[in-house]
Amino acid sequence: MITCIQNGKIVTGERVFEADILIQDGRIAKIGTGLTGEKNVDAGGCLVFPGFIDGHTHLDMPVSGTVTADNFKTGTEAALIGGTTMLIDFATQDQGGTLAEALRVWHGRADGNCACDYGFHMAVTDWNEQTRKELHEMAEAGITSFKAYYAYGGLMLDDCAMYDLLCEMHEIGGILGVHCENGPILEHLRAKALEAGCTGPEWHARTRPAVIEGEAVSRFLRIAELADAPAWIVHLSTEDGLGEIRAARARGQRVLVESCPQYLTLTEEVYERTGFEAAKYVCSPPIRPQSDQDALWKALEAGEIDILSTDHCSFNFKGQKEMGRTNFTEIPNGMPGLEHRPTVMYTAAVASGRISVSALCKMMAEIPAKMFGVWGQKGSLEVGKDADIVIYDPQADFTISADNQHHNCDYTPFEGFETKGSVRDVFLRGIHAVHAGELLETGRGQYVARDKMMG
Ligand code: MN
Ligand code: MN
């Protein structure tokens, strides 16, 4: 069947123009005026975006003696309803295990369950000769981006492993993202806090001050400089870290910067909430003071932030966040956000007048597609590409609530957030999969083997 999306305002990273889009065999067949299909969808008054790509999610992941509330089915359904047509989740090596095993496990969790398209980054937690060899096999299997951690027992790499891994990225043309927090020091601060009888959730942020991030960003970027490899800073949250990024870029390094809606719309007052409510906002890095948020906005307006991802890692308040009621170090880290990134960012960044709709399109579709090696098929509305399309109605304002979200989670950090507009329709490779907040099709997501990062 030939579908035509008519009269919409098509958004690219450069401009917005009125045109019709003809979809055939899952791909964009033609863009022009006066087009008609067998099925016609009127997008008059609406923005038409390429499907949004979320480069940072954790679905069906075991953490802290529990498992994330969202699995690949519930997470990708929420994603798709919110306008995200592809996500890239973190397959994670077990210490003592291989990358191949981790990839098998993640395929086992995701394959056949996904509503939107998906790929995997590979998180390297055990650096050895076998792992080094496997990196090349991963690149052949379509895994071209990797992750390493400076924090968390069981995940953390030391500086030498980080250096060797970055050298290998240089070899295979891969990109390494790093969770930048100084793990040993923050663990030390947490132990001291507990010793002093400080057990409440507000201590999560107090034991992870900005320098904890800034120091790790600096160290990662210096080691990347030594290894002559590009660096991906995941979930940047501080002005301190931003300063280190500016210094590295001034040295001529290639740095790709990711931030997330929670760092741009929430401030540390969330940790002053009583009745253990603060635990809902326990994520790492933590939510920051207003001054950090202001600095991130300036950077975003100046084009210094490349991509916006969610770091979606959901746990229910009841039964999961509550595990840390008497000890903040036992609160599982993470928050839901997959469904809400497009509306929250459209509202906070575009409707507010801070950036253009094209700039948003770049950060949520074009640059992630280029960075994660899917630009040949996704990331923009162009003839020949997958018909992953979002029709956004800028007049359909909405109030986000746990009651109307589709995450499998009993709260949302964006409770009460009033959006400007909402996602009306979503097409996944030409399949009309979402209309007015309802799923029309599920289980149609496909694994995407990825190319190398562009440029
Ligand atoms: Mn992280
Ligand atoms: Mn993460």
Could you name the key traits of this structure?
nine-stranded mixed sheet; eight-stranded parallel sheet; 21 strands; 30% helix; binds manganese (II) ion
Structure description:
The protein is an alpha/beta fold and about 450 residues long. About 30% of the residues lie in helices and about 20% in strands. The protein is built from twelve helices and 21 strands. The chain has helices at about 70-80, 100-110, 130-140, 160-170, 185-195, 205, 210-225, 240-250, 260-265, 290-300, 340-350, 355-370; strands at about 5-10, 15-25, 25-30, 40, 45-50, 50-55, 60-65, 65, 85-90, 115-125, 145-150, 175-180, 230-235, 255-260, 305-310, 390-395, 400, 420, 420-430, 430-435, 440. Strands 1, 2, 3, 4, 5, 16, 19, 20 and 21 form a nine-stranded mixed sheet that branches. An eight-stranded parallel sheet has the order 6-9-10-11-12-13-14-15. Strand 10, helix 3 and strand 11 form a beta-alpha-beta unit. Helix 4 (about 160-170) crosses helix 7 (about 210-225). The longest helix has 18 residues, at about 210-225. It is globular, with a radius of gyration of 21 Å. The two termini are about 35 Å apart. The model has no long low-confidence stretch (mean pLDDT about 95). Bound molecules: manganese (II) ion (MN) (2 copies).
